[in-house]
TrEMBL record:
Pfam family, one: DUF397
InterPro entries for this protein: DUF397
Lineage: Bacteria, Bacillati, Actinomycetota, Actinomycetes, Streptosporangiales
Domain DUF397: 10-62
Name of protein: Uncharacterized protein DUF397
Length: 66
């Protein structure tokens, strides 16, 4: 089972993103799940993932499939 990282507080950007503008931010949503947004457009649309889906997504990244 993949662990879901639950950042406290607001939106977080990956430490790998450095100072560039091409980044996404993630946040644990109040109703559960994870929100993902474009850091250049913080008032834009938010993709919402359930905890299980987010864990599967992270697992695919870690094994190099995404």
């Amino acid at each position: 089972m993949q662990e879901v990282i639950r950042p406290s507080g607001g939106w977080r950007k990956s430490s790998y993103s450095g100072t560039g503008d091409n980044c996404v931010e993630v946040k644990v949503l109040d109703h559960g799940g994870i929100g993902v947004r474009d850091s250049k457009n913080p008032d834009g649309d938010v993709l919402r993932f359930g905890g299980k889906e987010w864990g599967l997504f992270l697992a695919e990244i870690k094994v190099g499939r995404l």
